[in-house]
Design brief:
The complex is a heterodimer of chains A (530) and B (168). With 530 residues, chain A is α+β, with helices and mostly antiparallel strands. Chain A has 3 domains: 2-124, Beta Polymerase, domain 2, CATH 3.30.460.80; 172-205, no CATH class; 235-494, Cytochrome-c3 Hydrogenase, chain B, CATH 1.10.645. Chain A has 18 helices and 15 strands. Chain A has a 5-stranded mixed sheet with strand order 1-2-5-4-3. In chain A, a hairpin with a 5-residue loop joins strand 14 (473-480) and strand 15. In chain A, helix 10 (331-356) runs antiparallel to helix 15. Chain A is globular. Chain A starts with a helix and ends with a helix. Chain B has 168 residues and is α/β, with parallel strands linked by helices. Chain B has a single domain, classed as Rossmann fold (3-Layer(aba) Sandwich), CATH 3.40.50.12280. Chain B has helices at residues 2-11, 30-37, 55-63, 98-107, 119-123, 154-165; strands spanning 43-49, 75-77, 86-90, 113-117, 145-147. The longest helix of chain B has 12 residues, at 154-165. Classes of the chains: A alpha+beta (530), B alpha/beta (168). At the A-B interface, helix 5, helix 9 and helix 10 of A face helix 1, strand 1, helix 3 and helix 4 of B.
């Protein structure tokens, strides 16, 4: 605590004009700043050695109906202490310009373009002002998250073409891939510039699956929106619903019973397990090594069938609810889970030694798709990808949620940032998750699994929550509206920050390795596009 | 080598080790079966995601794992719509994917089947009414078979796909 206070003092000493808000939540410091100071302060936070701030979330709010302003919020994680620091600025009245921080903080680039598309606010000085979420055929002036834009508005269509960055020269070719790919995966467009086989440049053109999730949240009530959160990214059902529920619970001042928190951790680890098992197999499969893929997808299927037996849903849907969990497990069911974990761990360990002894596989994975620690840091990369590139961060340890304050997690960390490191992170996390599942069974207390809300949230109150899903940190910011409605819900899947980093990891690699690199990131399109 | 053999022998055959289909899906219409009879129980499928949450994709992927092993029924996943007999469409058809879906439909050679997989593809599911959604799928292209569920279990998908292949 003393350390975090001193961070606040350092910032206040450097910028005397900023105002600290004290009444808000204790977990982070909140400062009000004028918009002109934003670039200077954010740069200071980002580069000052003692602070070392990582841009964690950047979001805008349309406050015009009540206060005639737009709010801009910049959330930083100060890496040494893992403390959050929030900077808020307001754009008054008709002011639609705000200074871009992208020239100093690379991680802000997509956030600022997203704000421009969704709110029509223009980041001045942003080096790339092409459209991001709205494809070029969307009519001019459609900014869906403005309060005067109807959620069921029928969009027109205009002529327009997306302009890719071009590399010109002798022997340079462009290879377009997508939006419909060869495998059973989601839509996205990749534009490669190649000279021979090595990739000189990759540009992403995503947001094909943009479904208007954040606007749909605004049509829901706080307690009824859990099914929508589960469907933000289907493979992260528990991660997203848990992050959403935690935000609502802190709005409602609702304490989750201890047994409920343990069960939440248990289900989150089950989700991590089936996804990691599938990924390890899929990485091997993309080097045409089909045997581990067959074994891994068999084990993944075992866990999904276990999920189905326990909860009636292979994806654990309908498990999380505001206040706790909807399903309690008996002692016999917990024993069944642990027995299944023991079988799969034995099975997986045998497979691991087969994989580790395959020299041609390891040769293919090593030094492929290297994401250096510096690039990862500049992009504020999170989750598995970050931990494979030497960024030592895991919310389960750094900001414990659910039952992780009582279940210490050993964080896996590798430095090389290549495909092999990302696979190793997943393999080690599989063992760690199984250990956690066993520990949950030993430590889980008796008692209720869910609490009931006793209070309604005041209009304009807001809360932030963060969950370490299997991909990385999932963030939700929920603002309450009148009568238990949602005024604004900002969703951030880890894919949104990790996608731009892939553009750097592929440079110099050959095109046939791209599917492998992409698989080792395994990012969600739906969670990114919202 | 010994390790691999030992592993395979120890694991044994896992195909078919899954709970039976439970979601009662409607039997396909006679004209659908008639259309499918042209493929002689060999169905090449192209999967198109038009904005799903990726759960339906995961279940389609699960069909190719050793437990469901969809290829034993002559069903295989084609890499291009030009090689496909049937399109499996998931998701509520977003504004951005509308053109791509129509293009894929045009690129698929006739005769072709269109299978709407999951609640989103059938009625837009949780995303109904959003500004960014123009679906459901049958608003844009004719749909022959509907497999409900959010997402449908692989066993249900497998049953629906094999039902289509039965002789009329």
């Amino acid at each position: 605590m003393a350390e975090s206070r001193s961070c606040d003092e350092v910032l206040k000493a450097a910028f005397p004009s900023i105002v600290q808000k004290d009444e808000v939540q204790k977990e982070f410091s909140h400062f009000l700043v004028s918009k002109d100071l934003l670039p200077a302060i954010t740069r200071y936070l980002h580069t000052q050695p003692g602070l070392h701030g990582r841009l964690t979330l950047l979001w805008a709010v349309d406050n015009r109906p009540t206060r005639n302003t737009y709010g801009l919020h910049y959330l930083f994680t100060l890496e040494p202490s893992h403390r959050w620091m929030l900077l808020s600025a307001e754009l008054a009245g008709n002011d639609r310009l705000f200074p871009s921080i992208t020239p100093h903080i690379h991680a802000a680039q997509w956030y600022e373009r997203e704000i421009r598309d969704m709110f029509g606010l223009i980041p001045q000085g942003h080096p790339d002002l092409r459209r991001l979420v709205r494809h070029e055929h969307w009519p001019k002036g459609t900014h869906p998250l403005k309060k005067d834009f109807l959620w069921d508005h029928v969009l027109g269509r205009q002529q327009g073409e997306h302009h890719f960055r071009r590399i010109e020269g002798e022997g340079v070719f462009e290879v377009p891939v997508g939006p419909i790919h060869a495998g059973i995966i989601e839509p996205g467009h990749f534009r490669f510039s190649v000279a021979g086989e090595p990739i000189m440049q990759l540009e992403l053109h995503h947001f094909w699956t943009h479904r208007g999730v954040e606007k749909l949240f605004e049509q829901q009530t706080l307690t009824a929106a859990v099914p929508l959160a589960e469907r933000v990214s289907g493979d992260t059902t528990i991660g997203h619903s848990l992050a959403y529920c935690q935000a609502v619970e802190s709005l409602l001042h609702l304490e989750v019973p201890r047994r409920g928190r343990y069960l939440r951790s248990l289900f989150l680890e089950l989700e991590r397990l089936h996804n990691h098992l599938g990924d390890v197999g899929a990485i091997c499969n993309d080097t045409a090594y089909a045997l581990p893929h067959a074994h891994c997808s068999r084990m993944k299927e075992q866990i999904m069938q276990l999920n189905d037996r326990l909860t009636g849903s292979r994806f654990l849907r309908g498990v999380t609810r505001v206040g706790g969990v909807a399903i309690d497990l008996t002692a016999a069911q917990l024993a069944e889970i642990v027995a299944e974990m023991d079988r799969i761990e034995q099975d997986f360990s045998e497979l691991e030694s087969i994989i580790a002894h395959n020299a041609s596989l390891i040769d293919r994975l090593e030094t492929t798709g290297v994401l250096t620690e510096r690039t990862a840091w500049d992009h504020a990369v999170v989750g598995v990808v970050g931990r494979a590139s030497g960024l030592d961060q895991d919310l389960r340890r750094d900001r414990p949620f659910a039952a992780y304050d009582e279940l210490p997690v050993k964080v896996v960390n590798y430095r090389y940032g290549d495909v092999r490191a990302r696979m190793r992170v997943r393999m080690d996390e599989i063992h760690e998750s199984m250990r956690l599942v066993r520990e949950v069974r030993l430590k889980i207390p008796q008692g209720p699994v869910a609490g009931e809300p006793s209070r309604v949230a005041q209009t304009g109150e807001w809360a932030l929550s963060a969950v370490e899903g299997w991909r990385g940190e999932i963030l939700y910011m929920v603002t309450a509206g009148e009568n238990g409605t949602i005024q604004r819900c900002k969703v951030r899947d880890p894919s949104f920050v990790n996608w731009p980093a892939i553009q750097w990891a592929v440079i110099g690699n050959i095109i046939p390795d791209f599917p492998l690199i992409n698989k080792s990131f395994n990012l969600s399109y739906a969670g990114n596009d919202l | 080598m010994f390790r691999i053999l030992k592993k395979s022998l120890k694991t044994g055959v896992v195909t078919g080790r899954h709970p039976p289909a439970i979601q009662p899906s409607e039997p396909p219409a006679p004209e659908v079966r008639k259309k499918a009879s042209a493929f002689n129980r060999s169905l090449a499928i192209r999967e198109v995601d038009t904005g799903s949450c990726n759960a339906c994709e995961m279940e389609m992927n699960a069909l190719t794992n050793p437990v469901y092993d969809v290829e034993r029924f002559g069903i295989h996943i084609a890499a291009s719509p030009r090689h496909a007999d049937a399109l499996v469409v998931t998701g509520p058809v977003t504004v951005n994917m509308e053109r791509a879906l129509k293009d894929v439909y045009k690129q698929t050679p006739d005769p072709k089947l269109v299978i709407a997989l999951g609640d989103c593809a059938i009625n837009c599911g949780a995303f109904k009414g959003s500004y960014a959604v123009t679906g459901p799928v049958d608003r844009h292209i004719p749909v022959d078979v509907r497999i409900p569920g959010c997402p449908p279990r692989p066993a249900d998908i497998l049953k629906a796909l094999t039902d289509i292949q039965e002789r009329p």
